[in-house]
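Figure S7 source data.
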Amino acid sequence: MRPEDAVAAERLSSEGFFELDTRLAPRAGPDPEPRSPERGVQWVERTTHLLRTDPGGCWVAEVDGAMIGCATSSVRELMWTLATYVVRPGLQGQGIGKALLAAALHHGRGCLRGMLSASSDPKAIRRYRAAGFSLHPQMHLTGTVDRAAIPVVEKVRDGSAADFELMDSIDRRVRGAAHGPDHPLLRGMFRLVVSDTSTGSGYAYHAADGMPALLAATNRRTATRLLWECLAASGETVLVPHVTAANEWAIDVGLAARLDLAQDGYLALRNMRPPTPYLHHGSLL
Ligand SMILES: CC(C)(COP(=O)(O)OP(=O)(O)OC[C@H]1O[C@@H](n2cnc3c(N)ncnc32)[C@H](O)[C@@H]1OP(=O)(O)O)[C@@H](O)C(=O)NCCC(=O)NCCS
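Tokens for the predicted coenzyme A complex:
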């Protein structure tokens, strides 16, 4: 993939995931919607970032010059992560995805560990398991936060670039690798909050609607505090995505906030256990 492919890749991925959501419906939750223009811009920004940091991890499949599939991935320290993986609807199931994933995995050949957030597409699941990934069911919490349930959140402050080294240390301890160059990108997209006390440290990025995009902490108490800080910023409805069974502290916060729990997709891992206390990012994990 080249930088000039990013916009076409965004259109392809938007089409592929909308088709997937429509195919897997009906299921719990709202009707599938195409990706919003705002999220499309963020997608292009994130992919352009990966093309800068990991040009060898980003691949497209083409027929007669037209893009029919893509996979983007990154390596952070000794961790390989898959960010995007899609083949044009109508051309799936013919081996194009297998070739794309092999190219992306080759970029991570020096890494012991691997992480990706898998959709519920049976074809994706086949590919990931065949590549040696363990599949951990992913849950999410949705609804309107009961404002009366929000505790007074102490020892949480706004973060800045001066916290990135601390955050990298937390990630090394919790998931085995730092996010390094991803932090400036994430900080441009989300609000960063940090908790750093004598007993524990942690950080969270959350969207304007309160959705935690990434959360890591050295203990559950700190993680709980940070998730409440995210939920306190929520409006009408909020989504807490990417919760694994290893993160019951997050389920407990969500249920205390009177959110509903549901299941969707998998956290797919290689050579590691589900990180905790940790809520992974969907594509930068
Ligand atoms: C996941 C995806 C990228 C894989 O690409 P692809 O070209 O379809 O993959 P391949 O054809 O190489 O492999 C598909 C596998 O599923 C099997 N398969 C094909 N049709 C299937 C179906 N309807 N149900 C279940 N399995 C199916 C194939 O036989 C193959 O398995 P095998 O190699 O063990 O025989 C593609 O299907 C896709 O874009 N899905 C929608 C978006 C998505 O879910 N992306 C993953 C995000 S994490």
